[in-house]
Amino acid sequence: MFLAFKELKYAKQKFALIIAVVVLVSYLVYFLTSLAYGLASSYTNAVNKWESDQIIMTVDANDNLMMSFMTQTDFNNTNIDGEKAKIGLFPAVIKNPQEVEDLDTRLNIYLFGIEDDGFLKPTDSNQTLTGNQVIVSDELSKNGYGIGDMIAISGSEIELEIIGFTKNATYQTAPVIYMALSTWQAYRFSTNTPPNLFSGIVVRGEIDSIESKLSSYTIDDYIFTLPGYTAQVLTFTIMIVFLIIIVAFVLGIFVYVLTIQKTSMFGVMKAQGISNGYIAGSVLIQTLLLVGIGIIIGFILTEVSVFFLSDIVPLATNVLFYIIITLAFFLFALFGGLFSVSAVLKIDPLKAIGG
Question: Which ranges does the record mark as transmembrane (predicted)?
Answer without folding.
Answer: 15-39, 233-258, 278-301, 321-345
